[in-house]
Amino acid sequence: MAYSNKVLDHYNNPRNVGSMDKADPNVGTGMVGAPECGDVMKLQVKVNPETGVIEDAKFKTFGCGSAIASSSLATEWLRGKTVDEALEIKNTDIVNELSLPPVKIHCSVLAEDAIKAAIGDYKKKTAGRSQAVGVNS
Amino acid sequence: MKLPIYMDNHATTPVDPRVFEAMRPYFTTVFGNSASRNHSFGWEAEEATEKARKQIAAIIGATAKEIVFTSGATESNNLAIKGVAEMYAEKGNHIITAATEHKAVLDTCKRLEKDGIRVTYLAVQQNGLVDLDQLRDAITDKTILITIMYANNEIGVLQPIAEIGKIAKERGVLFHTDATQAVGKVPVDVIKDNVDLLSISAHKMYGPKGVGALYVRRRNPRVQLTAQIDGGGHERGMRSGTLNVPGIVGLGEACALSKAEMPEEIKRMEYLRDKMKDRLLASLDEVYINGTMEHRLPNNLNISFAYVEGESLLMGINDIAVSSGSACTSATLEPSYVLKALGAGDDLAHSSIRFGLGRFNTEEEVDYVTAKVIDVVKKLRELSPLYEMHKEGIDLTKVQWTAH
After folding, report:
1. Cα–Cα distance between B228 and B69 in angstroms, integer?
2. Does residue B109 carry a catalytic annotation?
3. Closest partner residue to A68 among B383, B388, B401, by Cβ?
């Protein structure tokens, strides 16, 4: 199979590889996929609690080149977006940007799921916090 | 050293230039039909095919009359299995095979199941070999054929052919073996091993594509087959069709060369393969060899690099031609059924690479490939959330995954 130049670029120079502290209240972590399916993506966002803007995003992916590229691209797009803007990223945007063939569409779906899971985790944490604040006041 | 490097010799091999030279005259000058009895063109062609028949017979310990030419091992497997099922239908309707056979055997058996044949698919042990006790237990008075491959095309393990042959003979059951990967690579002897039918392919041993052979035992017992292709009654009526004279000459020459060079070549392949294996194991953790090393083709190495997905690994070594058991490299999106049959777990099947060394690989190439694989595996593990979790001491089998 021939890969698009953009997939090759992300594979050869993956952006924002790494991990952030899962326990940090401003960090949301999403992990989707399963080893026996051949893809696992871990995506993390670090959100500024004042502004709601994603200041940092990191990923690690076990999967084919298209899965790596999809998650690498997702971290690029996430940085600088607000949490709500981030939720608007669609898998089809990733498919178009990376010119993924039909058999690789599931990679983009997984990346969208990872974004949603990371933001969801962050929101759960902040919800817990405001509740805690409420109890204290 | 020239890039890309070809190390996928279980898929196919290049035609050896010596084989090509032997074939050359049979396209243009000695072009006769070997079935033409009335002129020298036919006689010369027949002389060439009969010489090839002897060369092919010699490499498996058979006689020339026991060789039936076909278009390749897929046809040989079809002819052997379907031919026996039809010919011996009155004797029984049960065939025994193994889960790790090539699709040319498995799908042939599946086709026969639709026609009322009962098929037992033996599981294999973790080392890739069939369990002989299970085989014995599977035989019934309706069993007409055991078909077990000689060497596996993915993991290279050599089945206990002599033992299977002995069991088959004792129980009066015919024994077919798909020896596509074995002939020319390891010594094969149909008499010693009590093999009744054996499939051969030319393009796996530096011969041309589109030609193969089926060994059909003529004595003790005399095996009969129902032809699957009807026509002019070539090949003693077992396989009609004008003989592919240049292809057959190529197959014969390929057999003669492989036979003459086999002792040296086995040593060279084992040396290179083991050098590669030892270096990979020394440089990387969490590396698993699929299938036993004890009974294995000298040119095969099938390794899983845990926590690294196979296709992404192939992408990183894109100047090296190898194969992966990863679903992402297959049309079906299913990981290798052979590796799954070993009980390796789908995750390790996704992480596997098959290296198939060949006659034209050099030590320099093997060193280059080894270093490159180590490099890319390390890079991809930096990217792998699974490797990170493994390093943190998390048991990945206990994690609740969100399968999609």
Report:
1. 13
2. no
3. B383
